[in-house]
Amino acid sequence: MNIVRAGFYSSIATAARLLAALVVIKLVAWLAGPAGVGKLGQFMSLMSLLAVLAGGGISAGIVKYVAEYRDDPQRLARLLAAALWYALCASILMGCVALLFSRQLALWLLDDVAYAGLIRLLAVAQLGIALVNYILAVINGFMDVRRLALIQVLGSMLGTVVAVWLARWLHLYGALLALVLGQLLWLVVGLPAWWRSPYFRRSMLRLRFDREMTLRLAAFSVMTLTSALVSPLVNIAVRDHLAQQLGWEQVGYWQAVSKVSDAYLLFLTTAINIYYLPKLASISEHGALVHELRQAYRHLLPAVVVLAAAVYLLRGWVTRLLFSADFAPANALYGPQLLGDVVKIAAFVLSYVMLAKAMTRLFVLSECAFAVSYLALVYLFTARFGLVGAMYAFAVNYLGYLAFNVLVVRRYLERVQ
């Protein structure tokens, strides 16, 4: 399996996930306008945060160590038993916290306590979401890209049907409810697909505390949780700042362009995640690592430049298609956002070296530092340039992140040479 073939299968899965997400965004834009899209972004940030916390943030660790231990049945069994124990304990803890603070979360994120029931449902769903994350991570660790794509396609199709039905019935509330139920529908597809895989063993469903394996997973938990916590929290802070300074309608324009950016980049980031994390984790030789990084830039940078250029040229049509004519002011925001996307992918590839080689302290410090710098740049640039300043902040921050990762990878390569 190479990056091109992995990219092909992941693109099919990504297209299905993207279609499901865009259906929800289109429904919300139609039913609730720019303000509704802004609130959708807040709820999706909460979902992404809880989804990672539900599994203890160890998906990357599972992928790495399954890739390393798949030819060592004893160590693999120990790892997966510890991983499932870790994930279920974390999901119960986070579910209880979300239940306890459901009213406060609804008021803080959505300005309406009527959504507290929805957050309670999301809290209860954490057990199922944790199991989905575990299954997908195991399949990814075995680099079974075709099976992974099948689960994502079928799960996304079911989620789309549920989203259309609930949005027509319950409007904005129904669209948000469909996001929660859609995550659980992946379990309906994922479990049978995993059971039928040639590498499935019943021992993979055992729970057991294993100190050594738990400590190994904990390092990845710290890195993943830092990334998962920081990004949604910073985006929430950015939305709150923009809403206070410019109003929720302006937040909707910013959210619309950000979602378009996330949508087309998903094709590339998914391929990187599926292929490069297990691949880089299993490589220790200097030459092989340099080769993989060069291959990544050879295939991914031209792809992101072409996609970004296409989105820029078609931005008016894309905005009308995905949202509505009311979102026309968002067209002025695409330029700096798309430039930032190109720099982001360049940095993203190199940042996976830190993740794959378990550079825990450096990864955590960099995530926190660049999150703070992004928020500071948003405050600075929006005060001077208005809403488009948030896009300038995005591009400038990722330029700094790219420079940082170049230095990190150079020093690592010097050590392993």
Automatic annotation (TrEMBL):
Principal subcellular localization: membrane
Organism name: Rhodanobacter humi
Topology in membrane: Multi-pass membrane protein
Key words of the record: Cell membrane, Membrane, Transmembrane, Transmembrane helix
UniProt protein name: O-antigen translocase
Compartments (UniProt record): Cell membrane
Entry's transmembrane regions: 12-32, 44-67, 79-101, 113-136, 148-167, 173-195, 215-236, 256-278, 299-318, 338-355, 362-381, 387-409
One Pfam family this sequence matches: Polysacc_synt_3
Domain of life: Bacteria
